[in-house]
Every structure is written in structure tokens, then in C-alpha cells.
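Q: What does the assembled structure look like for these inputs?
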Amino acid sequence: MIELRGIGKTYRLGKNEFAALADVNLTIARKEFVALTGASGSGKSTLMNLVGCLDTPTSGSYALDNASVAGLSDNQLARVRNHKVGFVFQNFYLMPRMTSVDNVAQPLIYRGTAPAVRRARAIEALTRVGLEERLMHKPNELSGGQRQRVAIARALVGRPELLLADEPTGNLDSKTAEEIMALFADLNAEGHTLIVVTHDPGVASHCRRIIRLHDGRIVEDREQSSSRQSLHEAHS
Amino acid sequence: MSTVSAASEANPPLENGGRLQGTFYAAHECLRSAVASIRAHGLRSFLTMLGVIIGVASVICVIALVQGLSQTITQQFEGLGSSTLTLRSETPQQDRMRGKINRLRPTDLDELRFRIDDISNITPLVFAGQRFGAEVRNGANVANGQLLGTTANFQDVRRIFPRSGRFLTESDDASRRRVVVLGEQMRKDLKLSEDPVGQFIQIGSEWFKVVGVMESLGEIFGQNQDNYLLMPYQTALAVTGVITQPDLWISFSVRDLDNVESVKERVASLMRRLHGINPGQADDFVVESADTLARTFRQISMTVTFVVAGIVGISLVVGGVGIMNIMLVSVTERTREIGIAKALGAPRQFILMQFLIEAVVLAVIGGVIGILIGYGLSYAIAGAIPSFPPPSVPWWAVVGSCAFSALIGITFGILPASKAANLVPIDALRYE
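A:
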């Protein structure tokens, strides 16, 4: 589903060029559950932004769903994000003045979906993440875990194949983090391709494949058989 | 298993209901979010609109006052009736500077009477003022004003009537009686009593008996309309005509409205013959209908309206700059929000439209408030000035103000909106 070939990303900071990513080759198949880990500054967020078409690489080629993303206009990239990718961010990035339903329905606005359909699909998505009781609440009336669930519902509402989560548990306590990761595992089991960016090995251990980056290069790429059990064993 | 999360449904069946409808839903959403954002910052939105409110209010107020005034005057013109024609002399500016003044003579009046049928109420008006070379006096009280000679028809043609006493009659004219009818202001200036009928005044060295006082016409542009005196036409000629050649205005009614144009032509050809004007030479007179007078005046008042409204309208541009200013601040403030929208797949045009609509909504709400305030203000001002005619707010001013406000919103919203639309999603998302 995702094919990265020789991807490089350089930023210009004044006169210095800074390579956030260098020669990254990566293939991720459908229904995989991948963790991108590494220390801060290792390029994992940059990689996620490229995969999610929020950013474009300075070199290399990227094909999403067998279609090259290179050379697409801003609007075409927006369309790809809207239809194929669901984002979950560390800081939730919810609209503070909007209710859960309106927040979740937002991506559908950009597809020109009718208001009634938007609302129905938003309620459906919120029910999926277990927030059917919090439809008309605004973000500041919700706990951190609930906010992240709203954000996940928003990522789900457009029915994308690919879910990208950038430090989804970074602002949550460990118990809530466990719940969110369990939700991700369920979604993966239901057929979503999931990529989770995290620096937390505990979170990464939920995933079936762990890719570790260092200084913009992939230094480790391993599969683990049954993630959850192995985590519990490791802790005990 | 939930249907929401099934990845196999990544390309759901057509849910968009067509491109056009989708655009409509998106536009509706833009409008909704614009209104929500305006309401969320109530005070700030109001202050943003203030420039437009003040601008539109002043424009509407000025237009209402000028239009009210011009309507009153136009109505007075229309009192003359559309079947009334006025024949008067016309001297080109060049000739005037050479001292050659064209005149209509009393013989022209007689010829008109006998040679043109289909007309009635032939009323001469002779300006006797300057030719007397003398002032109007009542004992020690002196008045200055227009001295006019005319006939009994005058009151029917002009639709003004005496408020006390009587008007000039046919027999006054035939026997050249020394009688006058006074305008209200003239009576006051002469310090005559409310009802001075029967009293005598002096014009130059001649004595005249007051037989009536005309009803008041009020003021137009601060100019008193009642400062005049009427005497019989023949009297005026007798008193002044010996020394100088009088210049006449001749008003007459056309009996049949359909004949107005043909009567005009016949009068013109008669006058050309009488004045010995060769073919190719310009007329030394004009035939005007009350319509033309009213139309000319309306044109002038329209020009005045637009010029004044235009000058005041400059303040609207200032209001537009105010909107632009706040919108730019608002874009910066909502950078994160824009980043989220872009990450979720909002196309460039959507963001552009959202901010543009917000600017237009701000400007139009400001415009509507401005119209209401301007409307009220014009009535307050007209009420505060004595004898000022009631203001009139024409529909085109209301529609025009709304349209112009919207235009201001678009013009000054385009810069902030494109700034928002051109943000790079990843940078906007990271903006702190």
C-alpha cells in the first residue's frame, strides 16, 4: 500500500542544510500495524507527514495505493488526505468551539457530503470509539482520553484505509494510553492499516512491526509475533 | 462489526450527490462557520464593522436629505403641469459678453396670441425689478425683491393663490391699474400688517394699492421664495417699457397633451420668422415644458447626490481597511485551525471562501446596520432644522449600499483570505 523509494527530506535553516530523512526505503502492506520509533529529531514525524501527504519529499518517490504522489497539486494532495488518510495527533487538534459531532463530521464537509449524512456518519464513528454519550460536548468538557477518541472518530469518519497517529498517547496517562492502543489494535483487526509514531517502547510493543529511525535513516525493522502478549511477558 | 471502520469500504458508493450540490453544501458550511466566528467574537466583530457602519450611515443620511429636498422642489415644478410650455429668450454666452442680449418683445406675445391656436392661459411675465431703478417702500420701510408684471392666468399656471385679498384681474390689466399682490416676505419686509389689503406702497415715485397677499412658498436651499411682488402686465410695461425694452417670459398651456410637440414646433417657427432668423442660424429663444425644467433639476440634484455621496463614501474605504486589518489578525490567530482543516483535506478554495465569506458577512451586516442608523439620522437632522423637507431614502441607495458593502468585503477580504488559503498545512499545524 505504501512504497517509499530513496526518500530524502532536507530543510534549509539559514545557510545550513539539514537532512531530516536520507535514503529511506520502506514498503508497508495493507492491514499492517506499524510503529515508527526513534529519539526526538530522528525523523519519524517527518516520515509520517510524508506518508500522510502533509509534506512532500525533496528526493525519492512515493506511491500510495500504487499511485505516485509526486507532482500532485496542493488541492490534489488535500483530496488524497481527505479520502485515503486519517490523522490522529498528539495534541488532538480538535476545534475548540465545535461539538464532538461537528468535529468528527469536519472532513466530510470537504467532500461535499450532505449535512444529514455527515451527522449520521459522525454519530456512527463516535459510537465506534465508545463516545455515543458525548455527542454534543465540546472538547473542553471532555477528558484527554475522550478527546483523543473524538480525534480517532474524526480520522475514521471518512473511511480511509490508512490511519496515521503521531504520538497519540503522548498527552495521556498510562491507563488511558493502554485503552487507546487497544482501540487501535481493534481497528487494525477490522482491516485498517495503522502507522503509529511514538518514542515510547511500551506503546510500540503493541504494534506488530517496529521500525526504528536514527538521524533520518531506518536502523531497525522487525516483526513481532503477538505483540500484546510479548509486552505483558516482558513486563512481568 | 462496525461498518464505519471497515477498510474494505474505503471507496464508499457515491455519497457526494453531484459536484454542484457538494459545492452548495460547502458554501453553506462556510457561511455557517463565518457566522459562528463572528458571534464568537461579538465585540471585536462589532468594532470591525464600525467603519462600514459609520460610512454607510453617512452616505445614506446625505442621500436621504438631498433627495428629500430635491423631491420637494420637483413636486413644485410638477405643479406647473406637463402641458405648460414656457417661451423665453436665450442669449449665448458669447453674445452676452459682447453686450448683445436677446429679448422677447410684447409684440411677440401678441403674435403668439393671434397666430397659434390650441393654446390657452397665455401668461406673460415681465421682470420689472431692475428697470424701475427704484426700491419698494412703505413709509421708512424698504424692501428688495423681484418685481414682476403678469396677468390673471398666472395663478392658474403656477398654482399659487392669494391667502388674503384677491389676485390680479383681467380688468386690472386692461386699465393698467396701479395695484400689487405681495409675496409673504415682501409684506414682512415692508412691515405691513397681516392683512394689508387696501394699503398703499411706493415703488420708486409711483404709488400702488395692495390688493392681495400670496400664500407662502417657503425656502429652498435657504433661499426665500416669497420675496416678490406682482403687478398687472400692462402696468409694468407702462411704468418701465418707455425707457428700456422689457424681456418677457411667456407661459401657455397646450389644450391637447398630444399636440405638445407640434405646438412647440409651430411656436418655434413663428418666433424665428418674427425675429428674422435665417435658416442655419441658432434660435434666440427656447421653448421649455415644465417637464424639461423638472428633468434638468432632477439631473442636477442627482449629480449633487452622487458627488456628495461619493465624497462621504470614501469613509467606507476606511471601513474596508478596518475589516482587512482585523481579518489579517484573525487569520494569524486561527493559523492552527487552518492547519487542522488543511490536514483533514480542506482544499485551497474552501479556506479562501470561508474567510472571504466572513469578510463579506461582516461588511454586509455593517452595511445593514449603517442603513438603519443613516435612515434614523436623516430624520433626526431634517426634524431638527426648521422648514426642512422630510428626507427620502431611495431604494437604489439601500441596494447600492448593501452591494457596495459586499464589494468592500470582497475587496478587503481577498488579501487575508488568500493569506489563509496559501498557508502550508504542516507549518500551519505546528504554529504556536
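Confidence is low (pLDDT under 50) at residues 1-16 of chain B.
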